[in-house]
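Before the break, one more example. Copy the sequence into your notebook; we will annotate it together after we see the structure.
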Amino acid sequence: MIEVFTGILLAFHYVPSLNGAYPSIQVITHVAPYGFFIRNLHYWCGQMMVVLVVLHIVRVFVTQSFAPPRHFNWIVGLALFIGTLVVDFTGYLLLWDDRSLWAWTIARNLSESAPLIGSFMATLLFGPPDPSDLVLVRIYAWHAIIFPAILMPLIGWHFWRIRKDRISIPL
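Here is what the structure looks like once it is written out:
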């Protein structure tokens, strides 16, 4: 919920364009009221979410809580883990500084090298091969709209299965 709330606040100032992304981050950090705090809260909570999901997966694996009848919930949990990493990565790309540009270039080239669907997948996920405003708009849409819309029902289903399988009983 913190990520959603701070992300909405950040969206009021973020400009998804090649010439506007980095300066808008600077405005958020140095000019917008409480922007530094909100941006850091969004960033650090995102990092903490990745760490907590990794720790959760390790705990489930060590205790073998993925065994039937919970094996499908394990697969959904792994999908949620991958989704968490992807949302974190797309957020990293939105800074559009030198490191983000190179990360985008490497990720796009890696996805383009996949057999048969590589070119389609690279264009779908990362936009055209040359950096343009469309690239940042696409990454922003993936980060702020599409991936959260995919992950929220999966999270709901994951929690529902935990309750249904009596893994966690409400207090």
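Residues 133-164 form the longest helix (32 residues). The helical segments are 2-11, 21-30, 35-62, 71-93, 98-112, 118-126, 133-164. Try to locate both features in your own notes.
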